[in-house]
Amino acid sequence: MKNRLTYYALTFLTFLAAGCGTGNTKGSQTGTAPSSVQPVSLQQDTFRLQEPFNEEDMLTGDYLTDRLQAVRDNFKRINAIRNWTAIDTVALSESTEGGEARYYYRNGQLEKIVARYYGETFRLRAAYYLLDGQLSFVFEKRHQYNRPLYYDTIAMQENNDTEAFDFNQSAIIEDRSYFENGQLLHQVNN
Fold first, then answer.
1. Residue whose C-alpha is closest to residue 72's, from 190, 180, 171
2. Which residue has the higher pLDDT, 33 or 76?
3. Which residue from 95, 107, 114, 108 is spatially nearest to 43, judged by alpha carbons?
C-alpha cells in the first residue's frame, strides 16, 4: 500500500509541476485566467464518473463510512461544476504513444486533473480530485490490450498466433484510492 501511495504522490506532483509551468501548455483553452475572464464551458468528458463508490468499496466495514463521506461530497461538488475558470492541456510523454493531462481550475484553484496515457499495449485514464489543495480521490481505468496496437492479422499469421489486436478483448482494470489529509485512507482494486 505504501508503494501505491508513493506512486500517487509522485504522479500528482509531476502533474502539478507540469501544470504550473509556463509555456508548456498545448492547446490551453484559457491559461491561468484572471477573475475578469469569462468562464469556459466544460466539454463533456467521456471519463466522467457518476459515483466514486461501488458496493465493494464499503466491504471493509461501516467504520470508514463517515470518513469517506467527505471524499464523496467533494467528488460530487467537483463533478457538478459546468463552468471552469480555466482548463489547461499539457502533452505527456511518459508513454510510447503519448498522452495529455487536463487541469481544471475554478476561481484560480486547481480542482481536478484528468490524464490520459496511450501505449502500444494499453490505454490508461486517471482522474485526480483535490480537496483544499490535497489529493482526495484517484480513479484509474486501464485497458490492457490483448495484443499490441500494430499486431494485425499479418503479424498474427507470421507468429503462428491465434489472435490479432482487438480492443474489445482488452482486460479492464479499475483502481479507486481515497485520501484524507494527504494520507491513503482506503483503496479498492479489481
1. 180
2. 76
3. 114
Share of the chain above pLDDT 90, in %: 54
Q: Tell me if 37 is assigned to some domain.
A: no
**What is the residue range of 119's domain?**
2-30+53-189
Can you tell me the distance from the alpha carbon of 29 to that of 103, in angstroms, rounded to the nearest whole number?
Answer: 10
Amino acid identity, residue 115?
A
Note whether residue 41 is domain-resident: no
Query: What pLDDT sits at residue 81?
Result: 92
How many domains would you assign to the chain? 1
User: Residues 57, 58, 60, 63: is their CA dihedral positive or negative?
Assistant: positive
Q: What is the pLDDT of residue 57?
A: 52
Rounded Cα distance, 83 and 69, in Å: 25
| Model confidence at 22: pLDDT above 90 | no
Cβ pair 118, 95 in contact under 8 A: yes
Question: What is the sign of the dihedral through the CA atoms of 178, 88, 26 and 123?
Answer: positive
Whole-number Å distance between alpha carbons of 160 and 121: 19
Between CA 9 and CA 15 the distance in angstroms is 10
In a domain, residue 175? The reply is yes
pLDDT digits over 84-109, tens only? 999 999 999 877 788 999 999 999 99
Residue 36 lies in a domain: no
